[in-house]
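1st attempt posting a full record on here, be nice pls
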Amino acid sequence: MKKNIFCLSLFILNLYSAQINFTNIPNPDSNANGNDQVMMYITNTSESTGVKGFGLPAVETPADLPYTGVNVPSSRIEALRGMLLFVKSTGQAMVFDGLVWSKAFEVESDNISRFQINPVSTTSGAVMLPINSLINKPAFLADPLKLKTNVPVSGTDLNKLYIRQSGLYRINVSLNFTGSAGVFSNRLGASLYVNDTKRFQLLENTVNFDGTIRKISLDFSVYAIQGQYITLEAISEVGGTTAYNIVPDSFVTVEKIL
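the predicted structure (as tokens):
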């Protein structure tokens, strides 16, 4: 049987072609163009000693990352998804998904965020809970759900958890209280708001922890849509002139279930 074999190498090479440009820039910041959005440079200064590397453009602190703070984009910038920057002060590479920044090379639970609640006091029985955006992995404070990413750290936004992905969330509020005699004769608890509309309210008897500090732990489940925000309020069953303090070691933990 006669077989014909055709060579298509040249044809394929003509169809699929690419060009890669490598630039060796000793100091990328001084050579950057003001119109540049993404920059890449390769260091390969000494072949004899095997010194090679891929260098990322760098900023000094997380606050210097573009598209943060007041410059947070209102919608995803598709052209910049995957942009990488190195933060010198933290030694971390950050990746931009077109909306928010996150650590580029880190493996962690991706469905649970946990935050510390700042100390706060009330004389009226109710107070909004200020949620600290501090990340402290050894203390189990992390934000893979990005609920506090690019959220201002002062003013009313300090109380807010912004939903980045629509879904069902379980929210645990663990509060430590101090107060004068008689404050804990009635139940204390928390209210959960979505976009400033009250959705749930739970009350419990506090647990006497050490004779001074009282504790409660409350669980909420809520379906939230991307772009909405959640706020939490400590409440008293009686209200009125009830005075108490939320003290350190109070936390809110958010788990994305579905």
